[in-house]
Amino acid sequence: MLSAFLLTFVLFGWTLWKGTFFTDNFTWLWHGEKILRGEIELLSAHMSTFYSPVLNAWYAIMMKMVGVYSAPYFLVGLTVHALVAYLLGEVTSILARSRLAGWISVLLFASAGGGYEPLVWIGANMHSIVALCMVASLATLLSAYSSSIQKVDIKQGLLLCLSFLAFVLALGTKEVAVALIPMLAIIGAWFHLKEK
After folding, report:
1. Helix, strand, or coil here: 38?
2. Disulfide: which of 7, 41, 128, 194 matches 118 by Cβ 3.0-4.6 Å?
């Protein structure tokens, strides 16, 4: 986990000082402010064609806590990116049965091959947040299944509940999360067949 955070903050920490809001950021900030004033509802508010209760909640909370000061938004974005890199490494380690493969995937993702835009443009952070929810759902499901499934214990039950919660949050963040449904089904079927 340390390497994910270290690499992310070394490469993109400059956004904390140099990052600014532009374009869609102001619409989301305005949405957060309207939610706080009670003018629109968190669960029903749409921004243009986007429906994202998770982002509505995030912007409302951030507006309440820090207002329009951009550095905390970038700090959260960097943290989310580092967590995605770490969890992606965990998923890769479990699937490849190799810590080295997991570590390489952490380095590749943390250096932001496809994640650059949400790091420098807060308005694109829904991509990072949905990715976090998706890999969290996959990682917790894989962790639950990777141990013996002779009988479901409390830890496995908790991991399965966390996987479901992350799945619901992913669906409430961005529509691309529907891709998670077949991924979870394939993992579940694989481990079910493996046990038989």
Report:
1. coil
2. 128
